[in-house]
Amino acid sequence: MGFWELLVIAIVALLVLGPERLPGAIRSTMKTVRSVKQFGQQMQAELSDNLRIHELHQKLKDAEAKNLLNLSDDEKAAIKELTEAANSVRPSNAQMSLNNLTQQLGKDLTPTSSETVVKDENKTGS
Q: Which residues contact 78 (CB under 8 A, 6 or more apart)?
């Protein structure tokens, strides 16, 4: 909106609401606009997270199809990121060290001592 359009809206609002109710109406409108913007930002962040999760899941499927052999750097990075995410959610279930995964991947990812890999629950049936 241009300056003149905003000026016309302000004059009409002043005439309709009067000088007593106009400040409250402006505050209410601003509060509504702020909440709509916040909702939009939250939805955008959630969609972005879901898209990233889908992308990582697809790379994991690709890596599993290759039996974790001859993986691209993207696939290795995706496995490492998923491993770290799984460990941050369920650290007590982590069984296999990241060093073992590194040996499977054939590349040294230089993990910290606290990084571990979640045990493959499908193989154990648990």
A: 55, 56, 59, 60, 63
Taking the CA of residue 23 as centre, how many other CA atoms within 13 Å lie in the half-sphere pointing to its CB? 2
The span from the CA of 65 to the CA of 81, in Å, is 18
Whole-number pLDDT of residue 107: 52
In the chain, DSSP finds a helix count (H) and a strand count (E) of 4, 2
Alpha-carbon distances, residue 82 vs 18, 57, 114, 115, 117 (angstroms): 58, 9, 15, 12, 9
How confident is the model over 27-83, as pLDDT tens digits?
999 999 999 999 999 999 999 999 988 988 888 888 888 887 888 888 888 888 888
Q: To which residue do tokens 């969609």 refer?
A: 47
Question: Helix or strand or coil: residue 125?
Answer: coil
pLDDT tens digits along 95-124? 455 656 666 666 544 444 444 444 444 444
The residue type of 94 is: A
Question: Are the C-beta atoms of residues 96 and 125 closer than 8 Å to each other?
Answer: no
